[in-house]
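Target chain:
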Amino acid sequence: MANANVRVRFCPSPTGNPHVGLVRTALFNWAFARHHGGTLVFRIEDTDAARDSEESYEQLLDAMRWLGLDWDEGPEVGGPHAPYRQSQRMDLYKDVAAKLLEAGHAYYCYCTAEELDARREAARAAGRPSGYDGTCREVGAEDRARYEREGREPIVRFRMPDEAITFTDLVRGELTFTPENVPDFGIVRANGAPLYTLVNPVDDALMEITHVLRGEDLLSSTPRQIALYRALAEIGVGNGSTPSFGHLPYVMGEGNKKLSKRDPQSSLNLYRERGFLREGLLNYLSLLGWSLSADQDIFTIDEMVAAFDIEDVNANPARFDLKKCEAINADHIRRLDPKAFAEACTPWLRAPHANWAEENFDQAAWEAIAPHAQTRLTVLSDITANVDFLFLDEPVEDEASWTKAMKEGSDALLRTARAKIAEADWNAEALKAAVVAAGEEHGLKLGKAQAPVRVAVTGRTVGLPLFESLEVLGRDRTLGRIDAALARLGA
């Protein structure tokens, strides 16, 4: 059932290139918002000056635009809760931290890193939880003064309630976290910089986020954030409500490892450069934890939006399968309107992808061959090698293809084929009949007979339908290339 009050957020950090796991999270949030007629807030979590970069920020925006995942509030769009970059909201976080301290929901912690390490080590040795032990929870004025004389710079810690926290995860069902497993945690660094643990829930509260849909790796932080939401409500920050949570399954790579940013196949840029359609890529990524139905893997973005329900997401890890991703993309290429397909290929028919001179490109020849190419491509970048024979002065030299196709007797076959092709009407059906006849004279079936012709004309053993390719290439160029191959064979 639609619910226009739904407000979700996508809040990446601008570090490095966007990766497919991040895109899957963006997609599920976007689809959930669009399904309900709700709002997608695009928020940039850029409080880590050492790791964040403006280049990554621009890449995030560019990626969302390319994917067609439009946002209702955020950078370049604005909205009632602007600004949407956390680096521009520092005064707000400082004010909230002060209110939490004043209300007793937070306290100054003077423990040094060495002291914390020693106590954690002792707790582990004794078989106890190794989180923060609450040493500074009740520091008096005298001890505080002594710590400050020693030059200790405190962080601010949030005081967790001494009770279990239970919530119903939209993907995983009811979960309970006990106090000993969720210790007090830092929310402000010693230098005054706010931490993710503070700014993320504060922004969710102020932006009235109703549903938090994010990766499973953040599940352990949820009880801390729920406690913080409740404290924020007490001090008057936000509308007093706690969002519902849904934690999306891990995306696994090869073996049993979680797909990481360092895995080459995780980079969104790879898919853009190879010429994946956004529809194909998003279709596949939606299958990493969700499905439209048990017997339908191929669907449009609109079909996904109409059917998407976060409660249908599977909690089990999803494995990224590049071959299946490519197969789904190939299906989406075949679904394109022919004109849209021809236009989509344009970037790979121009420099720097094309290996032919720009003046050699023939638009009419491209339009004639495009329908035959559309049924063969996995990704759009494949088009360059498939049609270069049309726009090169000579076919590409591929020694492996030449060696494979030009067996003993190939010269005799090529001479026969040339003679019959020269006499044939210039259409695919007649050209096929000519090569079939040449093969019969030499005791060869079509597959064997056409291989030397294909390599002579296109340079490769694999490519678009041969006889349609010859028809587009033209009589003179086809015969000229067969003559060149015969000369190379010494025939």
